[in-house]
């Protein structure tokens, strides 16, 4: 079926060892000449990989190979029939770009003190930092306001951070901070504007928020390892018990700064962006708190966003982990839970968290890793298996 040698010496199709997507196998590898590989593995050329499948990295001589590596070892010769009929030949060059992401981050409840006293991000992020820093691009959800104002919304929980804490998120590896969450307006429009200014001043990327509708509707666009990424965030969380409604009280409009909110306009924006041929990553703050499974309306919304053109959806808000699935060619992470979030010990499952790493192959999500972590007071640590 395939040859195993150095890919630089042939003209043929790279082969991907693939499985139907399952979180159970997300950290597996395909070992050359091993009898312990998953028996369900099927080998596909890039253009043949079915919807709902993901690829395993290949291990040979104790080294891991991905499709973009020069000496990737699995391939097959081009079929002469295809060549004679002038059929499209799959690309010989592959770009592999790894995106890392995690859940909710707050910078109070002792986090600021832990960071500044040690003067290093490692005091909080501990052994998770290599996973965050080694990715080609890293996304986190900043769950609160960076402001000095005391003019707060009358909510049960309000989160306010010192601007000086943001630099440690850079050190930890973060490139993009999502702001379209239910705590971005904890200190009303003034606090929201302060946060937006602080995030930009610290040179973090963000999107889905702005002083104007036009600004909030812009994707953040960047080229990472020859992959054209477009990133957009929006809010979709339910009304809080205190009466705070994200659409009514915090969405951007002609009269105020704010966040982008779910709806037909967001789907239209995604469709238009996808027409540019870019890889589209969408961060959604939605779903229901402390529910271990996504609700039917959450599933419907997230799949509609994929149908509009999103290649990856990274979800937050429930404060607990929810399942991950491949929908057609898109990856949906329904909830990444908390990440840096002290004070959750009394809430069931709220200290369980993870880092997800998605490997985009020529823009398509094919490689996937899930690294389980645990929140311990003011730190987050990798779970020891």
Task: Describe the protein in words.
The protein has 385 residues and is an alpha/beta fold. The protein has 2 domains: 3-84, no CATH class; 96-382, 4-Layer Sandwich (Purple Acid Phosphatase, chain A, domain 2). Helices cover 20% and strands 32% of the residues. It has 10 helices and 25 strands. The chain has helices spanning 80-84, 111-118, 122-125, 129-134, 166-172, 188-201, 213-216, 246-250, 264-274, 296-308; strands at 3-4, 12-20, 30-31, 42-45, 53-55, 58-60, 63-65, 74-77, 96-105, 137-142, 145-146, 160-161, 176-178, 209-210, 220-224, 227-236, 258-259, 279-286, 312-316, 324-327, 330-333, 338-340, 352-361, 364-376, 379-382. Strands 9, 10, 13, 22, 23, 24 and 25 form a 7-stranded mixed beta sheet that branches. The longest helix has 14 residues, at 188-201. The two termini are 35 Å apart.
Secondary structure: elements and pairs:
Layout: E1 3-4, E2 12-20, E3 30-31, E4 42-45, E5 53-55, E6 58-60, E7 63-65, E8 74-77, H1 80-84, E9 96-105, H2 111-118, H3 122-125, H4 129-134, E10 137-142, E11 145-146, E12 160-161, H5 166-172, E13 176-178, H6 188-201, E14 209-210, H7 213-216, E15 220-224, E16 227-236, H8 246-250, E17 258-259, H9 264-274, E18 279-286, H10 296-308, E19 312-316, E20 324-327, E21 330-333, E22 338-340, E23 352-361, E24 364-376, E25 379-382
Parallel strand pairs: 3-6, 9-10, 9-22, 10-13, 11-12, 16-18, 18-19, 19-21
Antiparallel strand pairs: 1-8, 2-4, 2-5, 2-8, 6-7, 9-23, 14-17, 15-16, 20-21, 23-24, 24-25
């Amino acid at each position: 079926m395939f040859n195993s040698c150095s890919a630089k010496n042939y003209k043929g199709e790279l082969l991907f060892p693939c499985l139907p997507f399952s979180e159970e196998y997300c950290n597996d590898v395909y070992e050359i000449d091993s009898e312990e590989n998953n028996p369900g593995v099927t080998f596909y050329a890039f253009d043949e990989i079915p919807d709902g499948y993901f690829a395993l990295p290949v291990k040979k001589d104790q080294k891991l190979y991905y499709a973009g590596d020069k000496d990737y070892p699995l391939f097959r010769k081009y079929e002469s029939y295809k060549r004679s009929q002038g059929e499209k030949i799959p690309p010989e060059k592959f770009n592999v770009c790894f995106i890392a992401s995690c859940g909710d981050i707050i910078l109070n409840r002792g986090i600021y003190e832990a960071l500044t006293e040690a003067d290093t991000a490692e005091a909080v992020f501990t052994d998770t930092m290599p996973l965050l820093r080694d990715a080609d691009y890293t996304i986190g959800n900043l769950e609160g306001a960076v402001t000095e104002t005391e003019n707060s919304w009358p909510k049960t929980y309000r989160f306010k951070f010192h601007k000086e804490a943001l630099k440690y998120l850079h050190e930890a590896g973060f490139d993009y901070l999502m702001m379209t969450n239910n705590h971005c307006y904890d200190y009303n429009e003034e606090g929201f504007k302060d946060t937006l200014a602080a995030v930009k001043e610290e040179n973090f990327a963000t999107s889905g928020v702005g002083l104007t509708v036009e600004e909030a509707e812009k994707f953040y666009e960047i080229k990472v390892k020859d992959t054209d990424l477009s990133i957009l965030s929006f809010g979709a969380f339910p009304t809080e018990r205190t009466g705070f409604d994200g659409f009514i009280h915090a969405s951007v409009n002609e009269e105020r700064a704010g966040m982008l909110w779910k709806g037909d306009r967001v789907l239209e924006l995604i469709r238009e962006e996808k027409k540019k041929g870019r890889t589209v990553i969408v961060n959604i703050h939605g779903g229901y708190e402390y529910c271990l499974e996504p609700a039917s309306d959450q599933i419907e919304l997230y799949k509609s966003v994929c149908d509009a053109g999103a290649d990856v959806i990274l979800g937050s808000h429930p404060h607990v982990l929810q399942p991950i699935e491949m929908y057609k060619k898109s990856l949906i992470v329904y909830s990444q839970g908390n990440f840096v979030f002290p004070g959750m010990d009394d809430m069931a499952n709220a200290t369980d968290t993870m880092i997800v790493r998605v490997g985009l192959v020529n823009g398509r999500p094919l490689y996937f890793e899930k690294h389980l972590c645990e929140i311990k007071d003011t730190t987050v640590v990798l779970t020891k298996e």
